[in-house]
Amino acid sequence: MSTSTKSAPFSPGVAGIANQGCDPITRPFALTEGGPLFAIEKRVGLIKAHAPTAKRRAVVAALVTWLPLLGLSMLQGRAFGHSVAISFFRDLSVHARFLLAVPLLLLAESLLGPRLADAASHFVHSRVVIEKDFPKFDEIVERGLRARDSALVEIVIAVLAFGLSILAFRQTAVNVDSWYAARTDNGNSLTWAGWWLRVFCIPLFQFLAFRWLWRLFLWFQFLSRVRRLDLQLYRRMPTARPDWDLWVKRNASTACFFLPFRQRALE
Questions:
Q1: Cα angle value 84/87/93 (rounded, 5°)
Q2: Is residue 87 a contact partner of residue 79, using CB atoms and an 8 Å limit?
Q3: CA angle at residue 3 from 226 to 125, to 5 degrees?
Q4: Whole-structure pTM value
Q5: CB 64 within 8 A of CB 41
Q6: How many CB atoms lie within 10 A of CB 189?
Q7: How far is CA 110 from the centre of its chain?
């Protein structure tokens, strides 16, 4: 940690979210910008530095999930009409998952990711975390980012998502013809669209959902660790009702992330 009063240029692996000087520097606690899948997306150009890519990724997600399902269903005459009991266009769940839920899970990264990072850096900039605890705070951030980048965690999430997809198909078998499964004398037989749904679309949807649960766990773990520091809550976070309401209005974008600490201030 530098003792200079001037902020040094950010250098990953050298400077943390704060230094020992009077002017803290910021290393974002960016929970949505790491992990093996994030690295792959950067390599193929879906994520570019200093360029808005959330909409592009959301569109690509819809193109590789919903669009192939539509095409494969049309090839087998199961997209619309009454040739099967449940045609592709009549199945609202598939449209909700892959035209709404999956794009929203990706768009949320550009909305919530920066806000979580701002909330984390606010601990330092507002001096809720005092100067003597800067090294400890840096270590808390580093531990969270290492967990975010864990390849093992994403592999476990991917295996879990794929396994649950197979299990879901076995447990939710339908007794009528549908766009994803044909009813035969020997049971259900997956259509072309059904295979794509089973081996790619559903696992992708569940992977994105489970990854968000992991990120939220890391955020609350971060808050739990920061809570153990010598926080200056009385000075920086008012506890009286009128003062508290005013503070929330002035810090509306990040106030919700600090609510767990108000209880400690009242103890």
A1: 140
A2: yes
A3: 40
A4: 0.76
A5: no
A6: 10
A7: 9
